[in-house]
Amino acid sequence: MQLSDAAMFAEHQVVGVRDDPHGRSKSLEHLYDDESRSRRLPFQRAATAFMHWQLNRGLLRPPTDPRPGSPWWRAINEQLLRDGWEARALARGVSGTPSTASVELTTRFLAEPTSANWYRAHNSSIVAGYLANRALAQQESRTERFFMNLVLIRVLYAHALVSAPRLALGWLAPVAPLLGDPRLGMTGMFLSLSRILPDRYPLSDNVETYISDEHGFGRLLDIGIIAPRVNHLYAWSSVELDQPDLSSLLADDVPVYAWPTDDFDPWHPPPTRAARMIQQILRTPPSGITR
Q1: Which string of DSSP letters, residue by residue, matches 128-183?
Q2: pLDDT at residue 191 is higher than 70
Q3: What number of CA atoms fall less than 13 Å from residue 37's CA on the CB side?
Q4: Residues with Cβ < 8 Å from 6, sequence gap 6 or more?
Q5: Long-range contacts of 260-266 (CB under 8 A, 24+ apart)
Q6: What pLDDT shows up at residue 207?
Q7: Under the phi-then-psi rule, with left for phi > 0, alpha for psi from -120 to 50, and beta for the rest, what region is 70?
Q8: Which of 131, 201, 273, 290 is paired with 58 by a 20 to 30 Å CA distance?
């Protein structure tokens, strides 16, 4: 398929920083620099927070580095950059039409930088990257693959807080958009992985050790709040992000992205007393709730 001028421009931007982790970070920051920068700067902070987590773990190091990074994480990061630069080029009048649904959603965010539009653009690119790079994901360790799924769950849930508050928090829906607003630094909710994962790559292959180290808010979030509504979350997200294949990444309440369906123990640890209490307070949303 022949690339449009906008898509070729985006590819050039990605290739230029492919083996430069900090160059990738700068490239992401530049996506938010233009005459509307004052409106987009808060969202830049949200986007770069996730980038810094990848940098700190060494996930983006080039293959030639003495300690290479993750081919899968590098590909996911490139998807985000490529979509952003193509949308930016289109917004500036470079010829072409959006090559993917994720680019289309990113152009909408550039035209109207709201929290809902930021999540749709960001998460659509993330999901597109997941779907396009399953083969690379299979090459990662069991622990890495577990946290790939956990990252996906948490970014989808953060989006739901803003755009589907009843699904996300039930009767506490009125406070959900505030909790999920990326301009207020609440995206740290899904970056709390940094509290249990060491700043190195790759990890050892005993995922249970890392799960046992997670406590407090992270465990409460995953087991008490997200787990009971994870089916609704994936179904809603697949429509909201225009990524219908996203639903295939969940089977019987178990995230199955590069993950066997019969390996369900890590996803169903015994709930703490606090998690059980939260489950009872919020209850699982009835079938059909999308907002």
Answers
A1: HHHHHTHHHHHTS-HHHHHHHHHHHHHHHHHHHHHH-HHHHHGGGGGGHHHHH-GG
A2: no
A3: 7
A4: 86, 89, 90, 94, 95, 96, 99
A5: 266/146, 266/207, 266/208, 266/211
A6: 84
A7: beta
A8: 131
Eight-class DSSP state of 256: -
Ramachandran region, residue 123 (left: φ > 0; alpha: ψ -120 to 50; beta: rest): alpha
Percent share of the chain, pLDDT over 90: 60
- Residue 8 tokens read as 């070729």
With tokens 């992000």, the residue in question is 241
Round to whole Å and give the CA distance between 105 and 101. Answer: 6
Residue 114's Cα: distance from chain center in Å? 17
User: Helix, strand or coil for residue 19?
Assistant: coil
Where do runs of H (alpha helix) occur along 92-114?
Answer: 101-111
Q: Which residues lie closer than 8 Å to 50 by C-beta, 6 or more apart?
A: 187, 191
Dihedral of CA atoms 167, 45, 194, 276 in degrees, nearest 10, equals: -20
CA distance 125 to 79: 6
* Cβ within 8 Å of residue 248, ≥6 positions away: none
